[in-house]
Task: inverse folding
């Protein structure tokens, strides 16, 4: 079994519901061990779009990285993602941030995620659930990367009642 950290984001439609559905689908790819709080974040790249809800999940999975990516793309498609503008609005976005301590660069997949250390919208929720985890290329902890981040975009943790029931491990899927 491997451990993958998956970034989840949504800024179209019912954002919280989109995250719930994504988590339910992820739970079929392995065991969700941890889930960060929800964070409302401003868009990065293409600015003229709604704010995102973001979070990170820790997934224990038997799937190799390439197969996991393939399954994430299927989940995105099933949840209505249509790729138009790069960094544009989307119902759901699923990214492999880290996969064990693997370093991989292929034509379809880069692990660790190449912009992980530059983006507070994934660094902050990842630091919440795995602050002492080491970035395999940068040799710093996620907490250190979050503190050193030059990203000035807004990342606001939503109150805990907003996070309730986003993932219910006892729910039937």
Result:
């Amino acid at each position: 079994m491997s451990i993958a950290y998956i970034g989840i984001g949504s800024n179209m439609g019912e954002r919280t519901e989109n995250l719930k559905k994504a988590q339910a689908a992820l739970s079929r790819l392995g065991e969700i061990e941890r889930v960060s709080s929800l964070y409302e974040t401003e868009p990065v790249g293409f600015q003229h779009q709604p704010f995102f809800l973001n979070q990170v999940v820790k997934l224990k999975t038997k799937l190799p990285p390439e197969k996991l990516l393939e399954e994430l793309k299927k989940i995105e498609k099933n949840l209505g993602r249509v790729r138009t503008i790069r960094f544009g609005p989307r119902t759901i976005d699923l990214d492999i941030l880290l996969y064990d301590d693997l370093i991989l660069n292929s034509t379809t997949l880069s692990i660790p995620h190449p912009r992980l250390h530059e983006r507070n919208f994934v660094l902050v929720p990842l630091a919440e659930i795995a602050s002492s985890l080491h970035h395999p290329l940068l040799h710093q902890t996620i907490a250190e990367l979050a503190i050193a981040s030059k990203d000035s975009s807004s990342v606001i943790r939503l109150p805990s009642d907003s996070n309730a029931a986003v993932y219910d491990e006892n729910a039937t899927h």
Notes: The first helix runs from residue 15 to 26. Helices lie at 15-26, 65-78, 120-130, 142-148, 160-163. Residues 164-173 have pLDDT under 50 and may be disordered.
